[in-house]
Amino acid sequence: MAVRCRAHILRDYHMDQAPMESDEFGAGGIDEARRRNYVAFTCLLYSPEDRRLYCGITAYDADIFYVFDTDTNDWQSLGWTDIGEEFDVKIHRSLIFDPTDDAIYGATACLHDVSRRLEAPGGKIFRYDPHSGEYEVLCTPLEYDYIQTITMDHERRVIYGLTYPVFRFFKYEIDSNEVTNFDFIGSITHISALDDNGRFWGTWHWTHHNLFCYDPEADEITWFDHSIPNGPAGSDIMYPGAGPVDCMINGGDGYLYIGSTLGELIRLDPDTASCEFLGKPYASRRMPGLLIGEDGLIYGCGGDEGNGQLFCYDRESRAFHNLGEMYDPDLDTACYRTHDIARAEGNVFYVAETDNPYRSGYLWECDVQL
Length: 370
Prior knowledge:
Layout: E1 2-8, H1 32-37, E2 40-47, E3 52-58, E4 65-69, E5 75-77, E6 95-98, E7 103-107, E8 125-128, E9 135-139, E10 146-153, E11 158-164, E12 168-173, E13 178-184, E14 193-194, E15 200-204, E16 210-215, E17 220-223, E18 245-250, E19 256-260, E20 265-269, E21 274-279, E22 289-292, E23 298-302, E24 309-314, E25 319-325, E26 327-328, E27 333-334, E28 338-343, E29 348-353, E30 363-369
Antiparallel strand pairs: 1-30, 2-3, 3-4, 4-5, 6-7, 7-8, 8-9, 10-11, 11-12, 12-13, 14-15, 15-16, 16-17, 18-19, 19-20, 20-21, 22-23, 23-24, 24-25, 26-27, 28-29, 29-30
């Protein structure tokens, strides 16, 4: 098994050296070309109905929602700037298709400095109709804080979310338009998941990053006193204060599967909260994208600092297959840091690239050769 990759460019901005740390509103400032073109891909959602890929991006100009036609390779902005505000500069890990009403739910994230915290209204949960192109802003769950990630319970019509820069946990009930604020939990996952009983899993505590789960039937949180394997060692890698869970999915076999910030795959038993270390498929860190393929294998992306990788894991044989690095020979460039993965038709996967310090992030098309 191997992979052949091609990078697709939405907007392009190059730097001779890594930029000094600054935010788009703060003291450092940025020039207009960088403000418009220095983008990153953060969230992907594929629609098999029309073979289009919905892309949440980081963009300083708040033009953060695009669709990519996988047949023509054309891009279309979905016009978030018409209804959003200047602090909405990201859709981080917050795009979900809901078959109940044939719509996409999403949420907005931020980058501004704490000096402007009280000027920013807070992240928004929105509904987007892909047929009409119309938006509905449903709510701003928590004033001032923006939304890093959402997880949806389709059966109960509930969206769970985690916020930044204050790591708060909330529940939003769509039909009643009610928000429950569970407040500060001291940790954050890159993306969480629900188990087969509809319980939401995340991490809490600012140094230990222990597991917790919220049971919607009992309406209560269970706070566990252990993290995932190597949990504390994997904290602060995404950003200061963040926990070690880079990705979490329901495996459809009674277990949750976790990709850690150290690039390790872990299996969580939701009945006992016990964790099993399954292995590490590559030398680099990060594992922000996992999904179940049609063949039942777990496919994932990871790698860091110019070492983007694809892999798959066979649950029956417990074997990893490293599919190789993500490199485009025509552009002579490699994926700097992966952030999300989506499967299109057949063995074609799309991977989001983020945080490249020298150029804009690209959308990577990866054809897995079996």
